Amino acid sequence: MAQNETELIDRCVSLAGDDVTYLKDFVVKLPASRNTSDPPAAKNSIMLRKNTVYRFTVCTVDGSDGEAIIKLFDADQMLATNFNPTSGKIYQSFNFNCSRTGPYTLLISFKDGKKGRAIGVMSYVRRQ
Predict the structure, then answer these.
(1) What's the pTM value of the predicted model, to 2 decimals?
(2) CA distances from 70 to 1, 2, 55, 127 (A)
(3) What is the pLDDT of residues 100-120, one digit of tens each?
(4) Domain extents in the chain
């Protein structure tokens, strides 16, 4: 059964926690890729403010082949991700303490280049 997009977003927002304020969501649907070293990814530009803590949460939609991975970049440098390559564990969320106001890039992809649908949520936690 297909899940209603609004319900999916609401569910993911609630998983971000009671201590945050919802800011923005990212709805992603990606095809499978044969190239697992460079899987397809949804790229989103976001503006973040210095001295602010943000939480990034990602929810894989039921029925997806892959598990969603979310990564935060400043230019070409990855700053944070919900995926630990050493253990292979994928976390629901991560917090990011922003030290520079400006544009950042949020990438959402699926582990091993599998196809899937996901919801990413950006939330405000607190000012530093």
Answers:
(1) 0.91
(2) 25, 23, 11, 23
(3) 999 999 999 998 889 999 999
(4) 5-127
